[in-house]
Design brief:
A two-stranded antiparallel ribbon has the order 1-2. 43% of the residues lie in helices and 8% in strands. It is mainly alpha-helical. It has a single domain, classed as YggX-like, CATH 1.10.3880.10.
């Protein structure tokens, strides 16, 4: 019988610099997805998804356009690393 270990469900989040609940599954079926699951909290990932939606809508991005995908990948990494990322007009990050 396997015992439940809460630490197995936590990750040191690279955005928030603290231990937080991790994503239950990698967001992508590749090495990048596994790396995100091991370094980004579920909270930070959810915030990224909300920001990504705003960026797609405000910039009228097409997800079949390789340049749009590259832009979002760059913005995702900047957001998760607390670097200066593209913000939609009027965007105020959650406190």
């Amino acid at each position: 019988m396997q015992t439940f270990n809460p630490a197995d469900h936590m990750v040191f989040c690279r955005k928030y610099k603290q231990n937080l609940p991790k994503l239950p599954n990698p967001p992508f079926p590749n090495d990048k997805g596994r790396q995100i699951q091991e370094t980004v909290s579920a909270k930070a990932w959810q915030e990224w998804l909300e920001l990504q939606t705003m960026l797609i809508n405000e910039n009228h991005l097409s997800m079949i356009d390789p340049a749009a995908k590259a832009f979002l990948n760059e913005q995702r990494d900047k957001f998760l690393d607390n670097a200066d990322y593209e913000k939609p007009q009027g965007y105020v990050p959650k406190a």
